[in-house]
Amino acid sequence: MTLMELTVGIAIIALVAVTAGSMFVAGMRSFQARHVGNVVMADLRFALDTMTSDLRAATAVSLSSPTQIRYTSLGDAGALSRSYYFSNQTVWRLQGGVVSSLAANVASLTFAIEATAIRITMTSVTSVDGVTGSGLPLTLTTRVTRRNP
Fold first, then answer.
1. Beta strand spans in the chain (E)
2. Does 149 sit behind a cis peptide bond, omega within 30 degrees of 0 on the bond before it?
3. Dist CA 81 CA 102 (whole Å)
4. Using CA atoms, how far apart are residues 49 and 47, in angstroms rounded to an integer?
5. Distance CA 115, CA 149 (A)
6. pLDDT 10s per residue in the chain (149 long)?
7. Where are the domains of the chain?
8. Using an 8 Å Cβ cutoff, are 68 and 87 in contact?
9. Which residues pair with 86 in a beta bridge?
10. Roughly how many angstroms between the first and final C-alpha of the chain, as a whole number?
């Protein structure tokens, strides 16, 4: 084997290694972006499902603003007053003086009381921690028909 053949062989191996490395890095970025999108979608779905369930059982509902809804429902201990609101890219639930976070990375949340239902629309942020290409933003909308109007 001559020096020229050895040099060409090393160059080909280096080219293959660089290509494989680039493909691996691109695959990892794609996986991370999809994972971020899936986590944000799961958070939004959880918040929407929780709000839907609570508002469906509400006996009284009022809007404080398009981003805050107050409602009363009957529980084992009697009437319970709660509210949901949007602040600092987070959906919050206020129940019995205790505030808890339902979902983060939310760009907007709106409530609208219609003739027979409550419409909830929630949109995610466009990127999380600088990760783009994750299918964001997502917009989820639902209409909740109350059982106890």
1. 58-65, 68-75, 78-87, 90-95, 98-104, 106-113, 118-124, 139-144
2. no
3. 17
4. 6
5. 11
6. 788 989 999 999 999 999 999 999 988 888 887 888 888 899 999 999 999 999 998 989 999 999 999 999 887 677 888 999 999 999 999 998 899 999 999 999 999 999 889 999 999 998 887 777 677 888 999 999 988 77
7. 3-144
8. no
9. 91
10. 88
- The dihedral through the CA atoms of 36, 41, 44, 50 has a sign that is negative
**What is the Cα–Cα distance from 34 to 132, expressed in whole angstroms?**
9
Which amino acid type is present at position 16?
A: V
Residue 40's nearest CA partner among 82, 88, 103 is 103
